[in-house]
């Protein structure tokens, strides 16, 4: 894709995220997005059907960026869990405004739901490749870890990241190792 097109799409998405942060999704208009992105309304419509399409594409784009930055080879089972978690927390810290807006009540539930689905798949793959004790149910473990990690990430972001990514990962790994006897 042409760099000018990418730059315009990025400006529109960033304007959109900023407006969600300020006003909430329902109060945003295409006109406001265009003004904030410094483009005309027609340009917004060249890239996106409406604000719902823009939201959908933002969700896809930002989830893909999160996934690619945390699992660069696209195979979560090959990355040790501690390294994977650290990459995730560091990426979220660098892009705090975008992800806090999308994950919290200022965004829309669709982002959090899709992020959790993506996390669940990665966690399931990680569990398969690293193994667990025979008495532990993989499905229940994957659900527990997905909800726990997503909740912890959300808490961390909502509370203005009171701990460094490294501290968060160290604490999370201690909790997991102590309570689940997982290796990572």
Automatic annotation (TrEMBL):
<protein>
    <submittedName>
        <fullName>TetR family transcriptional regulator</fullName>
    </submittedName>
</protein>
<keyword id="KW-1133">Transmembrane helix</keyword>
<dbReference type="InterPro" id="IPR050624">
    <property type="entry name" value="HTH-type_Tx_Regulator"/>
</dbReference>
<dbReference type="InterPro" id="IPR001647">
    <property type="entry name" value="HTH_TetR"/>
</dbReference>
<keyword id="KW-0472">Membrane</keyword>
<dbReference type="Pfam" id="PF14278">
    <property type="entry name" value="TetR_C_8"/>
</dbReference>
<dbReference type="InterPro" id="IPR036271">
    <property type="entry name" value="Tet_transcr_reg_TetR-rel_C_sf"/>
</dbReference>
<dbReference type="Pfam" id="PF00440">
    <property type="entry name" value="TetR_N"/>
</dbReference>
<keyword id="KW-0812">Transmembrane</keyword>
<dbReference type="InterPro" id="IPR023772">
    <property type="entry name" value="DNA-bd_HTH_TetR-type_CS"/>
</dbReference>
<keyword id="KW-0238">DNA-binding</keyword>
<feature type="domain" description="HTH tetR-type">
    <location>
        <begin position="6"/>
        <end position="66"/>
    </location>
</feature>
<dbReference type="InterPro" id="IPR009057">
    <property type="entry name" value="Homeodomain-like_sf"/>
</dbReference>
<feature type="DNA-binding region" description="H-T-H motif">
    <location>
        <begin position="29"/>
        <end position="48"/>
    </location>
</feature>
<dbReference type="InterPro" id="IPR039532">
    <property type="entry name" value="TetR_C_Firmicutes"/>
</dbReference>
<feature type="transmembrane region" description="Helical">
    <location>
        <begin position="140"/>
        <end position="158"/>
    </location>
</feature>
